[in-house]
Predict the structure.
Amino acid sequence: MTVGVYRPGETLLHRLPVGVKLAALALFSLSVVLVRSMPASWAWLGLALLAALVARTDLATLLRAARMILVLALVVSAFQWWIDGPAKAVETLVDLLALALAAIVLSSTTSVNAMLDAIVRWVGPLRRVGVDPERVALTFSMAIGALPGTVTLALETRDAARARGLGGHPRAYVTPFVVRVVARAHETGDALHARGLGDD
Amino acid sequence: MPLIELDAAGVAVATPDGDRVLLEPTTLALTEHRVAVVGANGSGKSTLARMLNGLVAPTTGAVRVDGLDVTKQGSAVRRKVAFSFTDPAAQLVMPTCVEDVELSLRRRERRAGRRRELALAVLERYGLVDKADVSVHSLSGGQRQLLALAGVLATDPDVLVADEPTTLLDLANTRRIGDLLLGLEQQLVLVTHDLDLARRCDRVLVVEDARVVHDGAAEAAVAAYEASVLG
């Protein structure tokens, strides 16, 4: 969801070190989850919006990312409305939106490579116990990078099933999809190998 | 030019019905600037190409590049021999163009700022610098193949092995990528179905039924291949 939303820029939030931003996001998330009150929730949302404003996150990116989280948040809130009543439901909805916004701001101001460099630095001390920081970082980036590609494969497979008039049949869709994802994983592995990544 | 040697190198895989030979033991020495490999689908061309940088290990014999054994000294060989695939989508692993090129440069340049400069210079060279911060998924097929090539050429390898680099491309992009490949100063091993490209190479290998059946100057080899197909 937060893949590929990075927008280069020169704002304060772009220039902050990755570690500071990640720590701030962690602290923010923890506060949102732990402090349970309506005014606080609105304050969190306000804070997240302020961050988006400082980062000059463009509205289209915000809306696109928010739309996806909104569906999820609405389902969760509807459930809470039923269990705990409307006040709790609104609070949950606002909290979730604030968290999502903060995450989007982080992703839109931090390039994947900057994130990787940070991971390499942090995992560095584990080198002594046999962990290869470059490999850990590569694994992270692969996991992130694989998402859009996998979505494309899913859409292609669905279209192929539809073209053969098998649209309603989950097996006609799921089986080739899984096979293609595994095949793609093999190809990507070959490509990494060929580029000498993970050799040393 | 580097020396690529195949010393009775062959590949066979075990299947439930017994061994299947992907490439019969083959002995070759490639020293030409541009070598094309042509042949039918499933004839063993890709296996031959993949052996040259250790993606496929020979099950008999040995493959050496400038004396380095691709199986035993794989890491050193891959620094020398770059490989590009038919489908660039499988090869581009980072979200944006500049980041994908940076990935290739990680081993060479540890400083992030300098690495970015080098990556931008590479994109500049291939006319992709205006796409630096664009998602790799939003590129056209031709641009994607161009970026994939920029990514593997970023480390200045001595040899480029390209496995059907133009098969998925339209005419204009086939021409463009073909001109780029044939204009490289590096040694090129080009697996292709595009016989016009093959004709522009210095030497052509024709692969059929897991063996090299013709090996020689471009015109004669392509003519032999066409004759074998058209009967």
The longest helix of chain A spans residues 133-163. The two ends of chain A are 32 Å apart (CA to CA).
